[in-house]
Amino acid sequence: MNARKLLLPLFVSLALSACSDSGQGTATGDGAQAQEPPPTPVSVVGMKQGEHPITRVLPGRATAFRIAEIRPRVTGAIREIAFKEGSEVKAGDLLFQIEDDTYAAAVAEAEATVAKAEASVPSAQANLARYERLVNSGATQIEYENARVTLLQAEADVAQAKAALQSAQIDLDLTKIRAPFDGVTSISNVSIGNIVTANQTQALTTLRQLDPIYIDLTESSTNLLELRTAMSSGRLKGDPSRAKISLTLEDGTEYAQSGKLDMSEMVVSETTGTYQIRAVFENPDDIILPGMYVRATVTLGTESGYLIPQRAATRNARGELSAKFVTPENKVETRTFAVSQVSENNWLVTEGVADGHRLIVDGFQWIADGATVAPVEATVDEKGLVVQTPAGEASEPAAQQ
């Protein structure tokens, strides 16, 4: 009896201990399950190979297609300023009128000299003809030669007088200073009554032709070497000399006209390591003015590869392009690309990607390699914004961005 009294508390104690251990184990298991986070949703686009444009965005500055500093070629006082400062003028329009009375008098004097010289020619011709008839019947050979020289001198006097008249007429015409081509004038540096001299240092005004207009672009020599390598290997298709060029103005607007390559300076600057490219654009409304800064997008050709939107890519410490992809097991992995080209708002790569691979385009900044994710099909629009694809619809491949 005493033994039963001793064993009963022992059994109760063991039962309570077993229940306590069972409860702790259940609580621990539930907690472990609660702490495991669900897969992080990420936006992905499917990769697809295709032909895509290779582009370069280059800084540039506008310069006038033609520029002329207007200077006088004769001396005199300014009598008239015939243009409105800052206005458009046509080739041949009068810009300045210099006092021309003295030059008109010089022309009249030269005309009189011509008339006088021409008057002596008929007499010399008649005298020579008479000696030709008499040279064998009384007239000496010397007299005949003298008559011939007199005629030659009279004709030479006429030619000299006509040349002087032409020179005087040129000076008279130069008192009217005209526009050498269509353009826009600057301010006038002289006023009516000012004395100007032939070929003076100070320009009277400056004339600029703005339609068409030049855009001077700057490109690095490194990109030039990469371009030549791509062309020689056959990867880049197209003729860069016929590259299509578009402009973005200072306020961010797109210029409506497309330009074409005009020339490139085949010399690399020793200080900046760049070389100059010149493009020409139609500018009918004078929207682009000399001195404006612009950004030019130059389409050099096309290349086959895969597009990685710029928003989905980063650069590692070595400067290599890197992007994150989702594996078939829905794990995150980072891939690097030693060679990449700019294609509008994307990077174009040719290795390390295959059709159907899934590129993470949003949410990758906070996800480490090896993490499990929940891919959500998406697209990237022209502005680089991620657009979720509605359920049941296939995603647009990144190659179509």
CATH class descriptor of the largest domain: Mainly Beta
Q: Major sheet, described briefly?
A: 7 strands, mixed
* Uncertain spans: 1-29, 391-401
> What is the number of strand segments?
21
Number of domains: 4
Q: Average pLDDT, to the nearest integer?
A: 82
Computed CA radius of gyration, to the nearest angstrom: 44 Å
C-alpha end-to-end distance:
90 Å
- Examine the coordinates and then state which fold CATH places here, giving the name of the CATH topology of the largest domain: conserved putative lor/sdh protein from methanococcus maripaludis s2 fold
Strand content: 25-35%
Which range best describes the helical content: under 10%, 10-25%, 25-40%, 40-55%, 55-70% or over 70%?
25-40%
- Overall body shape: elongated
Number of helices: 4
Give the SSE order as H and E letters: HEEEEEHHEEEEHEEEEEEEEEEEE
Under the CATH scheme, the architecture of the largest domain is: Beta Barrel
Q: Given the helix and strand composition, which structural class is it?
A: alpha+beta
Signal peptide: 1-20
Keywords: Coiled coil, Signal
Main location: other
Domain Multidrug resistance protein MdtA-like beta-barrel: 212-301
